[in-house]
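Example record

One chain of 386 residues, shown exactly as stored in the release files.
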Amino acid sequence: MSTERPVRVFFPCTGLGSEQRGFEAFTRECAAALRSDTRIDLTVFGGSGKLEASERSVPSLSRTSFVARSIAALIGRDPYFIEQATFFAGFLPTLLSNAPDVVYFADVNLGNACWHLRRLTGKPYRLLYYNGGPTTMPFTRCDFVQQVSPEHLHSAVARGESSIRQVLLPHGLFIAPQWSPTDVAERVRIRSGLGVPTTGALVLSVGALNASHKRMDYVIREVAALSGSRPHVLLLGAETPETDALRALAAALLGNDGYTIRTLPRDAVLTAYKAADVFVLASVIEGFGLAHVEALAAGLPCIAHDTPTTEYIYGQLARRADLRAPGALASLLSAALAAGADADAERLRHDRAFRQFSWTSLTPKYVELFQAVAAGRVPDFRNAER
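Predicted structure tokens for this chain:
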């Protein structure tokens, strides 16, 4: 047995406990996947909000707080910048008094501050940037970059970023090895708990409840354009300043009984996939799109905007098209709903998700990534895949 000490990884996430982005979900799942691996000593740090027992709290201002919004307005920055700045101030004593091997981050301004601290103090930690946003800014204030999609890796190399400092390693997700279909009684029970009709077709979209990024207004308009009996629309995600306008649009076009918009805990969202007939994510740009994999793992027929990232996730197991076009989604929805349930297709979707994106498959690569970054070398699995 090796006597080498584990690689010590600090994993700060400024929105943990208060935000419901894909990165907050990923942070917790990554920590859970690595918790029993003795080669990695990973500590998660979250900001203001409700944290789990294993997570360490950093005093900071949430981007949604009145104080953060007021300071942001005063200095001409956005509240997310204030959240990161105050988080760094609260994180500073821990960084100065401890000796992590790797700081693993996705909040760009927080990472920049950690880089400046290292420059000023000579602290030896390495900076690993998780580009899930994705950002197109130069990767000048980190040592290594994790890209979660080939699309963004190729884009970074094309604009001049060094390929040696980057690696492709996608989101992980806890996925059961064997496919287990949901029976009718369970679907009815789940739908009843969600407050949606227990019969009829159900179209699900998961993401921030907005029009500007997740384009849930497009989903509403396209379902409203369907002829005949329309499916019920279930939109799940975090509330945004655009959510009230979405509700008004849905009420006007679908009627009060034609839609449901809710914010639910992550476990409840994962359960909701089992009750749907079709999953849709209409956003045209995603760093990865964790909901794509969640829906794929649930065996759902999926519809997505056609990009290299959605091709990477789904292969040929989804309906993909240019969802910027009026009528495009309505056409694909009609086809998906007309096709009905297909147990073999459901199993194929689940199996792809398990092979490509389960923590069972990916944990060894995450361990190797942290070990390699701490040692200042390229991960072995990347060399093997070249």
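Notes: The longest strand covers residues 7-13.
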